[in-house]
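Predict the structure of Shikimate kinase.
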Amino acid sequence: MNLSANLCAGADEEPPDPGAAPAAAAGESIEALAQLPHDLPIFLVGMMGAGKTTIGRGLARALGREFIDLDHELEARCGVRVPVIFEIEGEAGFRKRESAALQECTQRRGIILATGGGAVLAEENRRFLRERGIVMYLRASVDELYRRTCRDRNRPLLATADPRGTLRDLMVKREPLYHEVADLVIETGSTPIATLVKAILPKLQAYEKKL
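Done. Here is the predicted structure for Shikimate kinase.
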């Protein structure tokens, strides 16, 4: 199977999660709960299961911004799920596509972008994140990450005999990179999403970054 044949900018978006908070969409008028004094994009980084997609949707709704999930963007472009991309092209092929999508998405103003857990591995990706927007590291313990991901079959890197151990190893490797790019660090823990979003908003409003 050749994924290149399925790539097209007009690929259908993944159906919205009916239980998730809606984000601002093109042409849709929603009343924002808060405003930022700039249109810098907000980039969310962190481990798989840290809450980037769910929290990102909540922030987008509260700020009246467009929300983009980088993994979903890749799936829309390729026409297949992330595990299939891994299966056909391997992690190296997936990372190459991820970098290309990140390079494009980070140039867009006024968005909330949830990146994939491994997006920070490439130095060029880290540079894009640092130089183009405000980066927020959503942090959770390995035990919490495992609790959230243990039943998720859409995580190819966790398809191992010891997924908890895999998460621990990935955390050791990636956490320094998350801190390298982060402007803000948020502990997600077991706090309800709505509470987290309300706590994050004033931090974003108070944070100043000149690019």
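The domain at 42-203 is CATH 3.40.50.300 (Rossmann fold).
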